[in-house]
Amino acid sequence: MSEVIVIGGGPAGMMAAGVAASRGKEVVLFEKNEKLGKKLYITGKGRCNFTNKSDVNTLLENVVNNKNFLYSAFYTMDSERLIQFFEDLGLKTKVERGNRVFPASDKASDVNKTLKKYLKENNVEIVYKKIKNIETENNRIKSVITEKDEIYYCKSLILATGGYTYRATGSTGEGYEMAKNLGHTINDLYPSLVPLDLYERYETEKLEGLSLKFVKIKVKNPNNEVIYQDFGDLVFTEKGVSGPIILSASSNLKDVKDKNYILSIDLKPALDYDKLDQRIQRDFKKYANKDFKNSLNDLLPSKLIPIFLNRTKIDLRKKVNQITSDEREKIISLLKEFNFTIKDYSSFDEGIITSGGVEVDEINPTNMESKIIDDLYFAGEIIDVDAYTGGFNLQIAFSTGYLAGLNV
Ligand SMILES: Cc1cc2nc3c(=O)[nH]c(=O)nc-3n(C[C@H](O)[C@H](O)[C@H](O)COP(=O)(O)OP(=O)(O)OC[C@H]3O[C@@H](n4cnc5c(N)ncnc54)[C@H](O)[C@@H]3O)c2cc1C
After folding, report:
1. Rounded CA separation 102/92 (Å)
2. DSSP-assigned letter for residue 324
3. Largest CB tally within 10 Å, which of 46, 242, 270, 316?
4. pLDDT the model gives residue 170
5. Residues 356, 12: contact at Cβ < 8 Å?
6. Residues 210-221, mean pLDDT to the nearest whole number
7. Residue 28 has what pLDDT?
C-alpha cells in the first residue's frame, strides 16, 4: 500500500509526485512510456519554453478556457516561484522575447533531467507500467490496476495523464476514460493551437511557405458575423494556414469542421480604404504603360501575386492606364478582404494542446481534489483548461501539479 500514486510522468505528474514526496509522503509514479516526460522533450522546438515571466493577471489573461479555475494554482506557484524552483535545483534559465522563459542551455532535456533529479532526491519510486483502471471503495480511492492486471493499493491518487494530441508521446486519452468511469464529466475534446486547413487547396499549395507579416485576420460565421479577430503573422501551409495568429485563432474556435467559417485576411491593415486607393493610384501612375500583371510588385509578395491576379478576374494583359475605377475598387476590396473558407483543423494530433477534458466544476480549485471521489486529485492537461503559446501551458501543468502534490 502506497500513500500516494501518481499516474502520468509528464511535467504535471513529475511536479505533483516530487512535491508530495518532499512533504514526507511515500509516492509511486506510474509512467507507461520507457522514459519520463516524452512530450516535454519536444516542447518549445526542443528548447522548452517552460513558463512566461509575468504576473498572475497576465498568466490568467493568456488562458483561453476556464481561467478562473486556475486562480489558486497560479497564486500558489506563479512563474517567479517556478523559475526559482528550477534555479534552486541547479537549472540555469533565461528570458527571451515576450517574457518566454527557457533553460539557458536551450535544451528541453535539461528541464527533464532537473525534474528527474527532484524525484530522485525525494525518493519517488518510478514504475514504468501502464495503468488501465482505478478502483474505489465507498467513494474513496482504493487501488490502480496495470494493463497486466497487477493491483497497486494506495490512499490517494493524482491523475496526470495529459491530453489527446501528439499521441506518440503517450497522451492517448486513457485518463479521460478512467475519470469518466469514476463519474467525472469529460467535456468535448478539440485540438488547440493547431494549423487550419482551407478549402482553397488549389491556392494554398502554391502559397506554401509564404509568411505574411502584420496582417489582420477576421473569422466570420456564415451570417457574416465576426467571431474572432487578431493582428500579427501567419504562414501558408500546403493545405491551409499556420503561424501565431492562426494557432491562437484555433484556440478560440471550437469545432470548426463543416462550419463554413470564412477566414478574411486584411493584407494592408495599416491603410484604410481611401489611403489604399491613393497608394494604388500612385503605383498605377508609376506602371501606367505596363501590363496589369506587372503592376503589383510593390504591393504584394511575389508568391501571392499570381493568386491575387487570378482572383481579380481582370485581363492580365490589360494596360494599367486602362484599369477602370470599378476594377480598382475590386482590387482594394480583395486587399482588405482576401478570403478563404476554413475546412477543418489540420489534424487532431497536431494540436499543441487539447481543449476540453475533465469538467472544472467537479474539481476543487484550491487543492485539485475531485468533488466526486475522495482522495482523487487531477493535474495538468487532463483538466479542461488551455492557454496560448508562450509558456502558459507548461505553467498550468506545473502549477496544478504543485497544488495537487501539496494537498494530497
Ligand atoms: C510540439 C509541442 C510543443 C509544445 N511546446 C510547449 C512550450 O514550449 N511551452 C508550453 O508551455 N507548452 C508547450 N506544449 C504543451 C505542453 O507540452 C503540455 O501542456 C504539457 O506537456 C502537459 O503536461 P501533462 O503532464 O499534463 O501531460 P503530458 O506531458 O502529456 O504527460 C502525461 C504523461 O502521462 C503518461 N500516461 C498517459 N496515460 C497513462 C497511463 N494509462 N498509465 C501511465 N502513464 C500514462 C503519458 O505517457 C505521459 O508521459 C507543447 C506541446 C507540444 C505537443
Report:
1. 9
2. -
3. 242
4. 95
5. no
6. 97
7. 98
- Residue whose cell numbers read 490496476: 145
Distance 193 CA to ligand 1 centre (A): 14
Contact at 8 Å (CB) between 73 and 205?
no
Rounded to an integer, what distance in angstroms lies between the CA atom of residue 37 and that of residue 10?
4
Interatomic CA distance for residues 130 and 7, integer angstroms? 9
Q: What is the dihedral of CA 306, 261, 238, 217, to 10 degrees?
A: 60
Site residues for ligand 1, CB cut-off 6 Å: 7-13, 30-33, 38-40, 42-44, 48-49, 130-131, 160-162, 166, 170-171, 174-175, 352-353, 380-381, 391-394, 397
CATH hierarchy code of domain 2-190+353-407 = 3.50.50.60
Amino acid making up residue 400: T
The residue whose grid cell reads 489527446 is 164
What's the full length of the chain, in residues?
408
Q: What nine digits make up the cell of 284?
A: 498605377
Query: Which of 102, 133, 161 should be mutated for ligand 1, with most atoms under 8 A from CB?
Result: 161
Angle among Cα 329, 332, 335 to the nearest 5 degrees reads 155
**Domain ranges across the chain:** 2-190+353-407, 195-346
User: What are 101's three cell numbers?
Assistant: 522563459
Joined together, the cell numbers standing for residue 221 give 460565421
Cα 213 to Cα 142, 216, 235, 237, 268: the distances in Å are: 55, 9, 9, 15, 10
pLDDT the model gives residue 339: 98
Q: Is the pLDDT of residue 4 over 90?
A: yes
Backbone dihedral region of 66: left (phi > 0), alpha (psi from -120 to 50 degrees) or beta? Answer: left
What is the maximum span of the chain, computed from C-alpha positions, in angstroms?
87
State the residue for C-alpha cell 513558463. 51
Residue from 108, 131, 127, 97 nearest 41 by CA:
108
Q: Which residues pair with 226 in a beta bridge?
A: 220
Q: Strand locations in 45-173, DSSP E?
A: 51-52, 63-65, 93-96, 100-103, 125-127, 131-137, 140-146, 151-159
Supply the pLDDT for residue 177. 97
